[in-house]
Amino acid sequence: MDLRTTRLCSLTLLLALATTACGQAPTASTPIGVNYVAATERLHTAGQPDAATLATLAEQGFELVVNLAPPTNQGAVADEGKLVAEHGPTYVNIPVSWQQPTYEDFELFSSVMNGARDRKVLVHCQLNMRASAFTFLYRVIHEGVPPEEAMKALSAVWIPKDQWATFTADVLARKNIDFELPAP
């Protein structure tokens, strides 16, 4: 084996070990998008994937793509729904306002997710803040995951504050779940 091949094999092995040691894919930037997190084998969250990545999601096993960002957001991919659907996955856009996320938004998201319980799902938004918060709430409320456990995937991206901390607390309170987000 030549030196270049040896180095490539070593780099590949180190990357595989780092990913396994962390228990999830790296969160900085991955082939899917910024702030990518595999919350579970089935539920993944990310910031806005580029057009090339959106076209390959079916090849990665994704069957549903839920975009929580308004289509007018900076960095949005034009005709994202058409692009995704042309390659196989179902596409749903729930345009959640950054300034005013609502309980109704979460209820719609929950309905979509409840209809896809056995499907591999990518939930994304612009930077994976809306997506990680909604996925955290969904896992706690609908999948019965303890909030402390679900918090691991959320905190890999951020700790909600301001309107997002209020929104998260409101949704949990409506479902009689006593949990406080850690301070950001």
How would you summarize this macromolecular structure in one to three sentences?
The chain is of the alpha/beta class and 184 residues long. It is 42% helix and 10% strand. The protein has one domain: Protein-Tyrosine Phosphatase, Chain A (Alpha-Beta Complex), CATH 3.90.190.
Folded structure, characterized:
The chain has 184 residues and is an alpha/beta fold. The chain has a single domain, classed as Protein-Tyrosine Phosphatase, Chain A (Alpha-Beta Complex), CATH 3.90.190. It is 42% helix and 10% strand. It has seven helices and five strands, in the order H-E-E-H-E-H-E-H-E-H-H-H. It has a five-stranded mixed beta sheet with strand order 1-2-5-3-4, with helices on both faces. The longest helix has 20 residues, at 3-22. The radius of gyration is 17 Å and the shape is globular. The N and C termini lie far apart (49 Å). Residues 1-29 have low confidence and may be disordered.
Question: How would a crystallographer describe the biggest sheet?
Answer: 5 strands, mixed
What is the average per-residue confidence, as pLDDT, rounded to a whole number? 87
Summed up, the domain count is: 1
CATH class designation: Alpha Beta
Strand content: 5-15%
Give the CATH architecture: Alpha-Beta Complex
User: Tell me, what's the shape?
Assistant: globular
Count, helices: 7
Summary keywords:
disordered N terminus, alpha/beta, globular, Protein-Tyrosine Phosphatase, Chain A, 184 residues, five-stranded mixed sheet
What does the secondary structure layout of this molecule look like, with pairings?
Blueprint: H1 3-22, E1 37-38, E2 43-46, H2 51-54, E3 64-67, H3 80-86, E4 90-93, H4 103-114, E5 121-124, H5 129-142, H6 147-155, H7 163-174
Helix pairs in contact: 4-5, 5-6, 5-7
